[in-house]
Amino acid sequence: MGGQKASKSANSSKNETSLAVKSYLFVYNGAQVAGWSYILYQTLMHYLRGETTENLWPVVATSLICFQNAALIEAFLNQFDYVSVCPSI
Which top-rank group of organisms is this from (predicted)? Predict the structure, then answer.
């Protein structure tokens, strides 16, 4: 009977962690979608204004660096098995 109680609390703790991780990943992925959408918007507006590729970098640099570096967070989380990253990509 004691083993069932310990097992139940271990499963409860695992479920709580899983919910926290799922919540974090939901927010993280939502932020990534919003960020990359914003970069796409910046790029499209840049070209629709008739600008050239040579001066695109100053327009998107800050956003692009921010959201590209967020991939480092994903690599870090992969070390703790919170996310799975396909090595072939």
Answer: Eukaryota
